[in-house]
Design brief:
CATH architecture of the largest domain: 3-Layer(aba) Sandwich
Order of helices and strands: HHHHHEEHEEEEHEEHEHEEHEHEEEE
Number of helices: 11
Radius of gyration: 22 Å
CATH topology of the largest domain: Rossmann fold
CATH class of the largest domain: Alpha Beta
Strand content: 25-35%
Helix content: 25-40%
Number of domains: 3
Largest sheet: 7 strands, antiparallel
Number of strands: 16
Distance between the termini: 45 Å
Strand order of the largest sheet: 4-3-7-1-2-6-5
Bound molecules: flavin-adenine dinucleotide, FE2/S2 (inorganic) cluster
Length: about 350
């Protein structure tokens, strides 16, 4: 068997090295079209496991560049129960176009979508994300899951227009479908032993904390925004948490950033766990706070992404664990990581 793989491998390598991409492509297409996903997956897994990433990448890039997205996607996202490409980890994800059933503009340039995707809603957890295809763009854009309604079979997504990818997604209408891969990544870990959880969000980092709060007992939520015009989700958080809003500019809310508000509240009431998502300086300050008070903290990271499933290294980030440096994939090992020491 091993030698068979070496041959298959060598064949693909040879095709790629000689830029005979059409043949490599045809081989993969043939496997996929004939629903021999186990073989296509196994071939890719083998390449990846043997660190022949340049070959796997070349094959996939070619598929993407030629808009054979369905083939690349099928190979990549075939659920592992049928021979999956990541046998070390039990995870399921779906790729598909799902109807948009609601759309609102929450604040200038910040859009709120609800999509109907029952099979995804069924397995999604707080802190996971969806990878959204944007028209005319090869790479998908990662957006956190803001709310999950398992009964209605829906996901809520809140996205801010930052560049052309998010602009294109924001133009989708309720008559249309959203092309997504989901649910992806590792979300927040909820442990009932913590009785005084604090949730700290900044700007567009606040949406994933909403579904988290729904799953916590009596959480305190501190949400920081630039100004009062950019405050979002206030009513939603008020229903399920003890909410404190703060703004950098003077307004009717607490004047200052989320960490200043945290320090203020903690004069009387120290949390026993912190969950956070937002801009990097806020995350750094929250980690320092947790370290000082010896409190566990879970941090949701943001990095530029390509594949979204741990295969391309675009989102690699250096982390220090038990004093040792190593690289983690934000998409697969995160986006939520637990920071210890
Ligand atoms: C796990 C995860 C969850 C996210 N959840 C949300 C969410 O719920 N709502 C939301 O509005 N945004 C979220 N983002 C950020 C969002 O993915 C980016 O804003 C988007 O990919 C930018 O694409 P673009 O084509 O519009 O902008 P580009 O033209 O690609 O870039 C515009 C600006 O955004 C910055 N940017 C690009 N990609 C990212 C990224 N991945 N993370 C941070 N900054 C980026 C660029 O540096 C640049 O300054 C999330 C990102 C990650 C990694
Ligand atoms: S985005 Fe490809 S490895 Fe994370």
């Amino acid at each position: 068997m091993v030698s068979d793989w070496n041959i298959a491998n060598a064949a693909l390598s040879h095709l790629c090295a000689n830029k005979k991409m059409n043949f490599a492509n045809a081989a993969l297409s043939h496997l996929c079209a004939n629903k021999k996903m186990n073989f296509a997956n196994a071939a890719l897994s083998h390449l990846c496991a043997n660190k022949k990433m340049n070959i796997a990448n070349a094959a996939l890039s070619h598929l993407y560049a030629n808009e054979k997205m369905n083939i690349a996607n099928a190979a990549f996202y075939h659920p592992p129960q049928a021979g999956g490409r990541m046998p070390e980890k039990d995870f399921f994800m779906y790729v598909g176009k799902y109807p948009i059933i609601k759309k609102n503009e929450l604040a200038k340039g910040i859009f709120d979508f609800v999509i109907h995707c029952p099979e995804i809603a069924q397995i999604a957890t707080p802190g996971q994300f969806v990878h959204i295809s944007a028209e005319r763009f090869m790479l998908r854009r990662p957006i956190s899951i803001c709310e999950i309604d398992k009964k209605a079979g829906t996901l809520r997504l809140v996205l801010e227009v930052r560049g052309n990818g998010t602009k294109s997604i924001s133009e989708l209408q309720t008559t249309e479908h959203m092309d997504i891969i989901a649910p992806l990544g590792n979300g927040f870990t909820i442990d009932v032993k913590y009785e005084n959880p604090y949730v700290i969000g900044g700007g567009i980092g606040t949406p994933p904390l909403l579904e988290l709060c729904k799953n916590l007992d009596n959480p305190v939520a501190i949400l920081g925004f630039r100004n009062k015009q950019s405050v979002i989700l206030q009513n939603d958080f008020e229903k399920i948490s003890n909410l404190y809003i703060c703004t950098d500019e003077k307004s009717e809310y607490f004047h200052g950033n989320a960490i200043e508000q945290l320090n203020e509240l903690c004069k009387n009431n120290i949390p026993d766990i912190i969950y956070t998502c937002g801009p990097a300086p806020m995350l750094d300050a929250a980690i320092k706070f947790a370290d000082k008070h010896k409190i566990p903290i879970q941090v949701s990271l943001e990095e530029r992404m390509a594949c979204g499933i741990g295969a391309c290294l675009v989102c690699a980030c250096k982390i220090v664990k038990n004093g040792k440096e190593h690289y983690a994939h934000v998409c697969k090992d995160g986006p939520v990581i637990t920071v210890d020491n």
